[in-house]
Specification:
Strand order of the largest sheet: 2-3-7-6
Number of strands: 9
Largest sheet: 4 strands, antiparallel
Helix content: 40-55%
Low-confidence stretches: none
Order of helices and strands: HHHHHHEEEEEEEHEEHHHH
Strand content: 5-15%
Mean pLDDT: 95
Distance between the termini: 41 Å
Number of helices: 11
Oligomer: single chain
Shape: globular
Radius of gyration: 21 Å
């Protein structure tokens, strides 16, 4: 696994290079890059080799996600979306659906997952999008907000409710009649991740696109999608912290003030120590969550929340610290720490805001005393 991981690291390094700054400023990722990474299996690395994937463990996929995140959070966001789509299809799709759709995801086609709505953000129980079976078809009607990667997606995994108010997930080709897309203009962070608002006006797809025939518990659908997403975001935050640590230490070691390196100033040294602590703590909490996931622990969903909450908080503080150390050198739009400053703040909101994570963790703490 170590050799396979090193091989994927090298592939990412070669394809990404020094381009993330330009991508961030342009607000767009090269489509050909995404297709190459998708076809290489990198965008959903946990998909088994039997479906054309890399068959990575949760931990190896996390390490790969952190590596991509250290380069570009927008690109890592596409990994998260593709990974959530693959995890949802693996969990709820039947044998034929897994073979078909996972094969497409590891063959270069791109996916986005649509679940947030105008009135259903943190409270996904308020979801209103209809996924209604009509004979040999499924009709999708509703609106979705801030769908990451929708700009590039060939397929949309849409979560909604059937005619009986029961959860359902359906794969909708992005070019189907009735699907409309409105790009989110100038988002705070992950500017090149292709966030978009979507509308589905009685979009009709074959019944074979309804994962597992529908009828899933809504909570299970959300838990599957959000747990994978939280793990991915958490590892991406590790990548953000590592990029900030690297930029800050390099700057402090080479920039002089009063004839001595910044790193000799005790207040600057404190900042560097804080960055190292943040990287170590965040890595370890993500590794714990990966072990819980792999072991099928009953606390795996809570471990994912913990990893996301801790890592996102450290990423936001680390980005602010790195900007402080680099000062004007890191204050230019597109610079790695300027990107990190904006991207990391968004990480404290997506896949469960800080406050939602705290509520979940508090409830878990209370359950331990009952």
């Amino acid at each position: 696994m170590a050799d396979a991981l090193s091989e994927q690291f090298a592939l990412v390094d070669g394809l990404v290079g020094d381009q993330p700054e330009a991508w961030d400023l342009a607000g767009e990722l090269p489509l050909e890059l995404l297709v190459k990474l998708g076809a290489a299996g990198i965008l959903c690395a946990e998909v088994p080799t039997s479906f054309g994937g890399l068959g990575f463990t949760c931990g190896a996929n996390g390490a790969l996600t952190a590596h991509v995140g250290s380069h570009c959070s927008s690109l890592r966001s596409i990994m998260t979306s593709q990974g959530i789509a693959a995890a949802t299809i693996r969990r709820f799709g039947d044998k034929e659906q897994r073979s078909r759709f996972l094969g497409e995801l590891t063959g270069g086609r791109l996916a986005a997952v649509a679940f947030s709505e105008p009135e259903a953000g943190s409270d996904l129980s308020a979801m209103r999008t209809g996924v209604v079976s009509e004979g040999d078809s499924v009709v999708v009607t509703g609106e979705k907000k801030w769908t990451t990667g929708a700009r590039y997606a060939d397929m949309l995994v849409v979560l909604g409710l059937d005619a009986h108010g029961v959860g359902a997930a359906v794969v909708v080709p992005a070019d189907m009649p009735g699907v409309s897309l409105d790009l989110v203009a100038s988002p705070l962070g992950c500017r090149a991740a292709g966030h978009a608002n979507l509308r589905f006006d009685e979009v009709r797809v074959p019944a074979s696109h309804l994962l597992g025939g529908g009828g899933q518990a809504l909570g299970m659908l959300f838990t599957t999608a959000l747990s994978y997403g939280r793990m991915s975001v958490a590892w991406g935050c590790v990548g953000i912290i590592r990029s900030c640590l690297d930029a800050a230490t390099r700057h402090a070691a080479t920039r002089t003030q009063g004839g001595v390196p910044l790193s000799d100033r005790q207040l600057i040294s404190r900042h560097l120590a804080d960055l190292l602590v943040a990287e170590q703590v965040s890595t370890q909490v993500c590794e714990h969550a990966a072990r819980s996931w792999t072991a099928g622990s009953p606390d795996q969903a809570v471990a994912a929340v913990l990893a996301k909450h801790v890592s996102a908080g450290h990423a936001a503080r680390s980005a602010a610290t790195a900007v402080q150390v680099l000062a004007s050198a890191g204050a230019q739009d597109g610079h790695v720490v300027a990107r990190a400053y904006r991207d990391a703040k968004l990480m404290e909101i997506i896949e469960g805001s800080n406050e939602i994570c705290q509520l979940i963790l508090a409830e878990h703490a209370l359950s331990l005393t009952r």
